[in-house]
Structures are given as structure tokens and as C-alpha cells.
Amino acid sequence: MHSHALLDAALAWLNGEQRGQDAHACFATDFATHRLFVPGQQEDRQADGAAPLQLQFLQQDGCHPVLFAFVEAGAHLRSPHHAQCPVVECTGAVLLGLTQHLKFDLSLSDGRYVLSLPYESLNLLRSTVLLTSGATGSVTPASLQLPDIDAFCAEVLRYCATQPGIHRCWVCHVVASGQIRNVGLLLQADAPAEHHTHFARAAQQLLPPGTMLLNLDPPGFFEDHFGPRLREHPPLFLRERNEDWWSRLRRRWQRPVVPVIMIDVVGDSPCPPGPPD
């Protein structure tokens, strides 16, 4: 018995079996337009005509809440844990939109097989849909509403100060066409790859919903486009030789100044990379 085609496509996307801009955009669009059936109920229509959805999330200690989504009508009846639950119908785009306000993992199911899409992958799908739809609009730097990343920056500073092999670290806001607001991190270190696991874990805990961490170190699109522009700004962390205790204390309590890197996505500009490992 085979799994549903959307599950197969999601698994191939997660495993990176189909690389390239067209493959990412194709799956993101398919997911966004697919009709899903989610445990929950629809509230009565409000005065403005909206009918909010009340979705049932499974809460887990120390982890993101989990939302189940069934890929076809009646599929929940094949699941012993959801057969008695009411479900509401919505598109994948509705669930992707929730990532702006809530961090959650999605369990995609046809009632027999279940595939987990972590929050980072959902956020990446949302970004891909916005980039390929042309519906993002444009904004000026003065009108941006940037996410609060002070807690993340504080952890970056604390960690870098304890790692002698880190010499400089830049953190920036990465804004694409207004609605996509992520955070980029660039290291000058003896072994940068050794530190990114810590930064990724800190980002999961400290970055607000709708924002993900981009590793700007590897050669390729990010380094070519962001590296030179970001290095024009002072680094968030700079290990200075012969730094006295007063300089260290002052740096610790200064509010970090984080630059904003704007991306104008036009023509054949590359889409975001594949799903995070």
C-alpha cells in the first residue's frame, strides 16, 4: 500500500532529492494549494465576516507543539487517535501563515503513514511561496517592523566570548521583499562549522516565530551576495588583543547594533536553499 503523493513529495523535498529553484517552488506551491483536514473546529462568523479556526495542537514538554494535518477527506478516520475528532478543511497556505505567530511542527498524514515537517521547514516553505508568488510587495528601511532578536544576540555574544577560536561574528536582519524577515550569521573563526550547531539551537529557542537563522558562511549564493555587504558593517563580536576588563564589561552591556540587508528578488534570482538538516 503506497502513501499519498503529497507525502512522497514532502519526503523527497526533505531529503533533498530534488534540487534547484524550480523543484523547491513546485513543492512549496503544491503544498500551499493542497486541501488539508486538521483536527479542530471553526468558530461562528464574526461581524467582519471572518470565521476563525480553533486548531488542536498536541503540547509536548520541551518541544514545539505538534499539529496533525490529513492530506485527504476521511483520512483521519483511519487514525485511531483522531477518528473521533472533528476536523476543519483549509489549505496548506493557511498553516504556513501560522508560522508568523507560532512555532510548531506539522505531522502530515494520510491516516496510515505520518511524515513530520519541523517548524524550520514550514517557515522555509512559507518564504519560498512568498518569493515565487510575487505577492510580497516592497518596503523602505524606515517602514520595516523588524523582529526582536536582542536575546539571540546576547547569547551569540556570550558564546563567542567563551570560544577563543572565534575572532569575529556578524549578525544581521535579512529582509526579502518586505514580508520575509530572517536573521543571518557570519563567522570568522578557526573552525566555523563547529559552532553553528550551538547557534542553530539558540535560534530555535530565542528567535521569534516567523524568523529563522541563515548560515552565511558556506560558499555560494549567501556568501557571494551577503558576505561583502555584511563585512562593511562592524561585527557584533570582535575579539580584540589586549582587551581590558572595562572594554569587556562595556561590550557586554551595550545594546547590539544589527544591520539590515535588503534583498530585491527579481528575475532569475535564486530561491532559498533546500530544507535545513
Provide structural commentary.
By secondary structure, the chain is an alpha/beta fold. The chain is 33% helix and 22% strand. The chain contains eight helices and twelve strands. It has helices spanning 5-14, 21-33, 92-98, 119-133, 150-161, 193-206, 221-231, 245-253, and strands at residues 35-42, 53-55, 57-58, 66-70, 87-91, 105-109, 114-117, 166-176, 180-189, 213-215, 237-238, 260-263. The longest helix is centred in the middle third of the chain and has 15 residues, at 119-133. It is elongated. Mean pLDDT is 81; it is low at 265-277.
List the helices and strands and how they pair.
Blueprint: H1 5-14, H2 21-33, E1 35-42, E2 53-55, E3 57-58, E4 66-70, E5 87-91, H3 92-98, E6 105-109, E7 114-117, H4 119-133, H5 150-161, E8 166-176, E9 180-189, H6 193-206, E10 213-215, H7 221-231, E11 237-238, H8 245-253, E12 260-263
Parallel strand pairs: 4-6, 8-12, 9-10
Antiparallel strand pairs: 1-2, 1-5, 3-4, 6-7, 8-9, 8-11
